[in-house]
Input
Amino acid sequence: MSQNDLNQQIILNDVSKFYGEVLGINRVNLSIPPGVTSLVGPNGSGKSTLLNLLTGLLRPTQGTIRILGTEPSDSQELFRKVGYCTQFDAFPKGLTGYHFIYSYLRLYGHNHVKSEELTWKALEQVKLSDAANRKVAGYSKGMRQRIKLAQSICHQPSVLILDEPLNGLDPMARAEIISLFQELGDSGLHVLISSHILHEVDMISDQVILLDGGYVVAEGEIRGVRSEVQEHPIQVLIRCDNPSLAASRLFEQDHVVEAKIHEDDGGVLIRTRDADRFYTLLNRIVLDNNLKIESVAPADEDVQSVYEYLIGGDGGASK
Amino acid sequence: MNAETQEPTFVDRLKATPWSLWTQQVLSILRLELKKTVMGRRFIGTVILAGIPVFLFFLRTLVDVPEEAVQSLGGSAVIFAAIFRTFIIRLIVFFGCVFVFSNLIRGDILEKTIHFYFLAPVKREVLAVGKFVSGVSTTGILFSLMTLFAFFLHYLPAGPGEMQKFFVNGPGFFHLAGYLVVIWVACIGYGAVFLLMGMLFRNPIIPAILILGWESINFLLPAMLKKISIIYYLESLCPVPLPPGPITLLADPAPIWVSIPGLLVVTVLILVIAGIKLRGMEISYSSD
Output
C-alpha cells in the first residue's frame, strides 16, 4: 500500500488497550476506507474504547494508530481532520448552543466571521437554529445529541466518528440525521458509527466491524462478511406472482433448507446452503413454470443478521 | 508589482506561524474560562475571600483611630505592609489561588467537561497555558481590586488633606504600585504551583496546607532554604520593609531583577510539567 493510500485510511496496527488487568480491546488490526462503517457489538465489547483510542482520549497499551496519516496523540492536527460526537453528555457551564459551536470553531483557529458562518451552517444542518441562543443545560436529550453532532461536523472534517449518535432522537430526527450521515459518507468522508440501532445504521453502512469481548469478530463489506458465515444458510426473498408454486419447486432441491411463504402472500423466503447453485436453479424454475418475478433480493445481508449469526441473539441490539 | 507576486509582509509571516494560532487559542480559552469562572459557585467563595480584608479595613474606618496613627502615615504604611504580608498574601491570595487554580483542570475532570477541550484541535500544552492565563487574569484582577480598596480604606481615616500629601507628594502611589505588582507575581507563582497540584493530587488541599506550612515558617529558615519558596521573593518585592522579628533568621532580600524573572522561570518550568502531564492524560469517565 502506498503512502498516499495510507494517508487516506484509518489504520489500526495490532492495537490493544488494557485498563490494569481488564481488557478493553485486544490485537485489533483494521484498515478502514472512506464511506460509512458501522461498529457494532454488545455492551462492553470495546466499541467506545476503540473510538476513544482513535481520537486520542485513550492511549493504546500497544500498537499504532494512524488517522489519515496522523497519530491520535497529535490533537492539534488530528481534530482538523476528525470530528467526534461522543457519548459524554456534559457541556461547559453557561454556554448557549451557539456559543458551544462558535467557541469550538474559534479554538480551531477560524476568525469571528468564519466561525459565525460555520456555526449557523452546522446548527442549520442539525435543525437547531431556533434554539441557538438557549443554554445547552436546558436542552432536551435529543437536542443535546444534535448539538454534539453539530460540534462534530461544524469544522467540516474528513473523518466523522459517532458514538451512539441516534440516542435520544425521535424517529423524525433519526431519519434526518441518518440521511445527513449518508450524504457525508457519499461525499467521500470516513463516517464511523457505533450504534445499537442496527436496522437504521444498516441502511447506510458500506462496511461493518463486529466487536465482541474486545476482539474484532468480523470486518469488511457487509455482503462479504455475510458470505463468510458458512454455517448459516443464506436467506433470499423472491417476490413473484405464484409464491406457492415457486416454494414447492425450490424446496425439492437438497441445498434449500427452508421455503416459507411471505406474510403478505406476495413472495417466498428461501434459506439455502449454496447460493450459486440456487441462483442457477432459480432461472430454470422461472422459465419452466412461467413465473413472473418481481424481485429477488438477499434477506439477511444486513448488519442485524450478521450480528445475530456471529455474536448471537440480538446482543442488546434493539430495533 | 503584481499583488500575487508581492513578498509576504512581516505580519503575514507572523500569522503563518503556529504562535499566531496558539495565541488565538489561548485567547479563546481565556474568554471561555472567564465566562465559566464568573458563573461558577467556587468563584463566589473566592470573591467572599477577597472581600474579607476590604470589609475589615472598612470596619476600621468606622471606629476611632488613634491620633498618632492618623498623624504619622509613615507608621501607618508599616502597619499596612505587615497586614499585606501576613494576612493578604499568606492567607487571602494563597487560598484564593488554591481555590481557583487547583480546579482549573481538576474541575473540568470532575464535571466531566474536559473532553470539550481534548476534542478540539488544540495542543494540550496550549490548553495548560490558556487555563493558567485565565486563572491569572481572574485572580489578578480580583485581588488587585481587593488591594486597591484595602489600601485606600487603610489611609482614609487620615483625611483628604493627609491622603493627598501621601499620594501626590509622598510615596503613596509607589507603594500601591508595588503591592499590585506583588499581587500579580503572587498569582502567577502560586497559580502555577496549584494548577499542577490540582492535576497531581486527588485532594489538592493537602499539598496546599503543606506548602502553606513551608511558606509560614519561611522567616525561621536559613538563607539557603528561604530561597526555595515563593513568599521569599514576594516579600523581597514589597515596597515597605518590615523590621525583623526577634527570632527571624536574616537573609538579604532578592533584588527585583532576580525575584520577578526567577519566579517567571519557575512558573514556565511548572507549566511545562503541567503540559506534559496534560498531554498524557486519558479520559476514563466513559463506559462501553
Q: What stands out?
A: The longest strand of chain A covers residues 22-32. Residues 15 and 63 of chain A are 4 Å apart (CA to CA). Chain A is about 35% helix and 25% strand.
